[in-house]
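In the design runs reported in the main text, the only information available to the sequence generator was the tokenized backbone. The following block is the verbatim input for one such run; it is reproduced so that readers can re-run the procedure and compare outputs position by position.
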């Protein structure tokens, strides 16, 4: 998937990705949920396979609960590809999530496959499907 489509839409999609990352780092559930379409779908890996949560409010509730396990998280994201066609877009993005847990600092590196839609003039995530690429564990300095 290349970088294709109008530059202003690709910039707006990058802004959407940055707003998502900023909201995670600030732990702002309302700002984070605002990046999703009302009927969005969020798919995450689970011990028994991928788990999909549907609907903005259900996604928000899942995120609020999940964030309890990630104190002091620093969430970074950048696009690997963006392709825009009208009011729809596909984006691949990469993430680095760094946080302390127990006596370790963990760094999760992952990738999202995203579908985005323009809703009332603003881009939103229609679906995000995440996979972990690498986990790094480092003992905390004492």
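Verbatim output:
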């Amino acid at each position: 998937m290349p970088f294709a489509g109008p530059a202003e839409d690709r910039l707006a999609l990058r802004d959407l990705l940055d707003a998502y990352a900023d909201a995670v780092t600030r732990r702002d559930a309302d700002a984070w949920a605002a990046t999703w379409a009302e009927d969005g779908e969020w798919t995450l890996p689970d011990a028994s396979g991928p788990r999909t949560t549907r609907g903005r409010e259900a996604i928000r509730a899942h995120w609020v609960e999940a964030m309890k396990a990630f104190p002091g998280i620093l969430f970074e994201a950048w696009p690997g590809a963006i392709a825009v066609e009208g009011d729809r877009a596909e984006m691949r993005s990469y993430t680095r999530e760094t946080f302390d847990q127990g006596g370790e600092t963990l760094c999760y590196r992952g990738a999202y496959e995203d579908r985005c839609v323009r809703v009332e003039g603003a881009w939103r995530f229609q679906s995000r499907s995440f996979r972990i690429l690498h986990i790094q564990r480092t003992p905390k300095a004492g």
